[in-house]
Amino acid sequence: MEIFIISLLNGLVYGMLLFMLASWLTLIFSMMGVLNFAHASIYMVGAYLAFTVSRFVGFFPALIVAPILCGLIGAAIEVWGLRRVHHNGHIAELLFTFGLVFIVQRLVQMTWGMLPMAYRVPPLLDFPLFNLYGANFPAYRGFMLLISAGMLFFTWLLLKKTRIGLIIQAALTHPAMVSALGHNVPMVFTTVFAGGCLLAGLAGVIGGNYQTTEPGMADAMGPIVFVVVVFGGLGSLAGCFIASIIMGMIQTFAVVIDYSVADLLRPLGLAISGDTLLTELLTVPVARIGALLPFAMMVLILLFRPRGLMGTRDT
Amino acid sequence: MSTRWLWIAAIVLVAVAIPWCFYDVAHHRHSGFMISMLSQMGLMVILALSYNMLLGQAGLFSLCHATFFGIGGYAMVHFLNAAGDGSLPLPMEVMPLLAGLSGLGLAIVFGYMATKQRATAFAMITLGISELMATAALMFHHFFGGEGGVTTNRMIDQSLFGLNYASGIQVYYLILAWTLLATAGMYYLTLTPLGRMANATRDNFERAQFMGYDPRVVRFLQFSLSGLFAGIGGGLYAITYEIVTFDALASPLSANALLMAYIGGTTVFGGPVLGAVLITLLQSGVSLLSNSWLVYVGVLFIAMVIFAPAGLSGMIRAHEPIRQAGRLKRLTVPYLRLVIPGLALVLGFVGLVELMSFLTIGAAQGKRLVLFGHAIDVHAALPWTVSIGALLIGGTWLRFEAAHFHRVWESLTADRREQA
User: Fold this and answer.
1) Distance CA B80, CA B87 (A)
2) Which residues form the domain of A66?
3) Which of A14, A124, A128, A151 is deepest in the core (most CB within 10 A)?
4) Which residues 151-210 of A have a C-beta within 8 angstroms of B?
5) Is residue A286 part of a domain?
6) Using the beta-carbon criterion (under 8 Å), do B292 and A106 form an inter-chain contact?
7) Exposure b/e, B246-258, CB count within 10 A at least 16 = b
8) In this complex, do B295 and A106 lie within 8 Å of one another by their Cβ atoms?
């Protein structure tokens, strides 16, 4: 039972972190038709910047400074990069952000080196928040939940309750009309792109010491985030939220399940032995294939719902 | 038409003859470095060309191309092992086709799912497929051998020509033959109605739909066939290295396929060949000298995406109308004027990248930056100033020269555009 509750909480923390990244990725996609492959790279840059900034002024100022820097980087990418390739079509934009992944990856390695950074949880938040059946739940994870929930609320508030949100929503579906009404649509695009990068940076700041800050973190996070976006349905924030939570739960629960398909079949009187590919598939414990499950889930949902969980449109 | 055949004959002749140019007469053996580099080129040519069946011809941005290359490799290892046991009495020369069929089989399975979508969604789905297979390769030991990969022995003594493939040169000629065969096959496909419909769905899938073709079927067929050729490449890979690990189907190789095809140029059939040869040369040459060769490839790629979306071969082809008008000479001076600022820009950039990389990665590896026999202190201000200066001056100067070049180019092509 305690394993269940702790895993539930951990899954929630991880799922919300995924949602911070995936939500604006899907928003940027539905607005500009651009899938930012470098989104996870910005997440990594956020973590590294937070590490460097926090060495000088402490963690909490870094929580503000690093995301803003990431937002500025995002704005620069949009203005000097994406706008230039926009007229060549969506494939060119995809290729552009894909190339960025390489460059950011190597630049990070060149600036900070190949080794993991000693980016730690701030001492102020380094205590057990509560104790559940003998297992501690760190306060920092509670803080992460707080930040990501706050971000969720902020995104909702921005989109639904402000004038800017209204224009963003209109520009999602009718960019030409919004432009004709006198709004600067490219400016809106830049704002949204920079906003997405800002939040990716924020996710990096709080995710960098939750996981490890090392040059491989973008490659580890990127595919999962894209799977979340596809699984939830491209362009659907609600689907994205559900998918993030599901993926977070899968990732954390898979680690603690030590059963395989063969264990399920045993009560039915089917014993599996031997050394073939099929028996290996059936006897491998779930804990060992945890990393595989998100991708397998994506393949499954594509078989039955090609548009994803709540996707409404084709691309 | 006849000049094209001449070009093809010349390329084939060079490919056949080039190992003998590096023949070590004193020791009666071929240069191992050259043979392995040429073999690698052949493999990469197949990979890049088959990738371009998707990106260039069908407008599909796939990120799981290495999956089919890798599965061809893994399958080939198992086929070779079976042949070694005597349970698969097939000559070596036709075995890559079996590997290709394995690639085809997997591409049919994944293609069924991925080609339901197009453009961005397609790219993301293929990314998921690539990760799925790469993770699976590390987890399932029976077929993939886990992290250690699977090994084989290519000397199975089953050959149409009595060859045992003990030496690298024999393998190189096998690769060359299959590369030519695969290239011819892929070129032939561009002439078939399928190839033409792939172009049509790339350019305007709605219109293709109105004409009664299902774009999804076209995408699916193109995807599956490209998996076939990638599998052939993977089979040859397994023959060359006699070991296949998860590197053969992981995402860096898919990215490599994309880089080669795009830098070479996706709009010309031969473009990816150029890209594959160039990138393999860079990989073998620059990666020995520099830690950060991927930065250069990445920057080159982004620069191509922004400034030259048609790739190198597209740039070359753009000169064709000017050449036909006999005005190519008038471009000589503008080109020469680009050289100095261009060199300054490149040197400044390379200098900065190397300084940065020696400051961190190099220091961790205990290496020192040595230029023309002089050790350079990466903490001193001078090399940094020189690099930044060269970068800024070269960049600014190049902007002016590029504007001048653009004016000359426009004036040379103006009347031609009026005619059109």
Assistant:
1) 10
2) 2-215
3) A14
4) none
5) no
6) yes
7) bebbbbebbbbbb
8) yes
Asked whether the beta carbons of residue B364 and residue A95 sit closer than 8 angstroms, the reply is no
Give contacts of B 338-397 with A, CB under 8 A. Answer: 353, 356-357, 359-361, 364
**Nearest C-alpha of chain A: how many angstroms from B214?**
15
CATH of B31-314, one of 1.20.120, 1.20.1540, 1.20.1260, 1.10.3470: 1.10.3470
Long-range pairs for A62-67 at CB < 8 Å and ≥24 separation? A62/A205, A63/A202, A63/A205, A63/A206, A66/A201, A66/A202, A66/A204, A66/A205, A67/A198, A67/A199, A67/A201, A67/A202, A67/A205
C-alpha B244/C-alpha B419 separation (Å) is 55
Structural domain includes residue A21: yes
In tens digits, what is the pLDDT along chain A, a chain of 315 residues?
777 888 888 888 889 999 988 988 888 887 777 888 899 999 999 999 999 998 888 888 888 899 999 999 999 999 988 888 888 877 888 889 989 998 898 888 888 877 888 777 777 777 777 777 767 778 888 888 888 888 888 888 888 888 888 888 887 777 788 888 888 888 888 888 999 999 999 999 988 888 888 888 888 888 889 889 888 887 788 888 999 999 988 888 887 777 777 777 777 766 666 666 677 777 777 777 777 888 888 888 877 877 777 776 654
Task: Give domain status of residue A151, yes or no.
Answer: yes
The count of domains in chain A is 1
Minimal Cβ distance to B364: which of A81, A113, A314: A113
What residue in B sits closest to A308 (Cα-Cα)?
B121
Within 8 A of A227 by CB-CB distance, chain B residues are: 124, 128, 131
CA distance B418 to chain A (A): 23
Structure tokens at A114: 């190949």
